[in-house]
TrEMBL record:
Keywords: DNA-binding, Homeobox, Nucleus, Transcription, Transcription regulation
SUPFAM superfamilies hit by this protein: Homeodomain-like
Any Gene Ontology CC annotation: nucleus
Name recorded for this polypeptide: Uncharacterized protein
Chief localization: nucleus
Length: 335
DNA sequence: GGACTATATTACATTACCTCA
DNA sequence: CTTGAGGTAATGTAATATAGT
């Protein structure tokens, strides 16, 4: 069961819910960004893909979105100055210019300009940055000629075009591997602890906060969920392995005990025909207790007989080995 | 109300890149 | 300098849910 904090109506398309609401929220973030949105919507066609397609249709007003870039962040911006966007919005303490800034490994390619969030809904933009202008131009071409108005396709195009447009990748043939900075990873990690999935608004806010593309945030959460699941699987596997070893050992011990009892039966038939009432089981601890009448005989019996007291409970009541995950889920559901 | 379509989201498998020993 | 392993960002695809017609 996942609890998610939602500040917007996630059921509505992002282009309508977020952009329309952004100015009305009157947060400093929205004002500082100063983005202007123009949506071209064909009459009678309300679907997102038609809107996103923008300049493809000659009679439609191209989607236009201008957003001033973020104010550069000082190199040594500490992590603690990051704010969870969805929390900051409600508190009004958002740092609109918060970003990862320079990365510990000095990979500027990670720094996607402030328009990043607009690529999520296929918006075009302009920026003095080289990567930005490159992206802008190529995006116009691809969205106009591709015929794929799909939001995800456009986003993917934007990703690829954005990579190609980076200064570090001039041939455009290689896939750029962007290493997230420690600060970005830590912030994403903290965010993941809050909730392992993001609604579109949270994703956009996080992307803006960390100066990443929304797609990057989305991918990071996908991979993070996969890692979590993999780790849990490993834990469960290890637990099962231990259970298996325990049961194997117990089985071996019981087999040995059975052999000894059989041997005892053949050597001392009279002793083994003692009435069953000489053995009693404690209802609370489920241990076998020997009665006074059989105490002397039990003392002379092999040590295997004593072991039976501890192994009987297993036979009487099968053990259940729930996964730690199942326990955690049960505990979570109960709480 | 059911069928169909479009879109969005997610899990999952895989690839590609980067770092380091 | 080369190489292989491990980590992880990114990609592709199928399944599923939801909304609109």
């Amino acid at each position: 069961m996942e609890l998610a904090l939602s500040l917007g109506d996630s059921s509505k398309p992002f282009t309508a819910s977020f952009i329309d609401k952004a100015p009305s929220t009157s947060t400093s973030k929205a004002k500082d960004l100063e983005f202007r949105v123009g949506l071209g919507i064909n009459a009678g066609e309300g679907r997102g893909k038609d809107v996103i397609r923008g300049g493809a249709d000659s009679d439609a007003v191209p989607l236009q979105l201008d957003l001033l870039p973020f104010t550069p962040v000082p190199h040594s911006k500490p992590l603690q100055q990051f704010r969870f966007p969805w929390l900051a919005e409600t508190l009004g303490s958002a740092e609109p210019d918060s970003s990862a800034g320079e990365h510990s490994r000095g990979l500027d390619v990670n720094r996607f300009p402030a328009f990043a969030e607009e690529t999520d809904d296929g918006g075009a933009h302009s920026s003095p940055n080289s990567a930005v202008s490159s992206f802008h131009m190529e995006f116009g071409i691809s969205s106009g000629s591709g015929g794929r108005g799909n939001k995800r396709d456009l986003e993917a195009d934007a990703e690829r075009d954005g990579s190609r447009g980076s200064d570090d990748d001039e041939n455009g043939l290689t896939r750029k591997k962007l290493r997230l900075s420690k600060e970005q990873s830590a912030f994403l990690e903290e965010s993941f602890k809050e909730h392992s999935t993001l609604n579109p608004k949270q994703k956009l806010a996080l992307a803006k906060q960390l100066n990443l593309r929304p797609r990057q945030v989305e991918v990071w959460f996908q991979n993070r969920r996969a890692r979590t699941k993999l780790k849990q699987t490993e834990i469960d596997c290890e637990y099962l392995k231990r259970c298996c070893e325990t049961l194997t050992e117990e089985n071996r011990r019981l087999q040995k005990e059975l052999q000894e009892l059989r041997a005892l039966k053949t050597s001392q038939p009279f002793y083994m025909q003692l009435p069953a009432t000489t053995l009693t089981m404690c209802p609370s601890c489920e241990r076998v207790a020997t009665s006074s009448s059989s105490a002397a005989a039990a003392a002379s019996a092999s040590s295997a007989a004593a072991n039976s007291a501890t192994t009987l409970p297993l036979l009487a009541k099968p053990r259940v080995y729930p996964f730690p995950q199942a326990q955690a889920q049960a505990h979570k559901a109960a709480s």
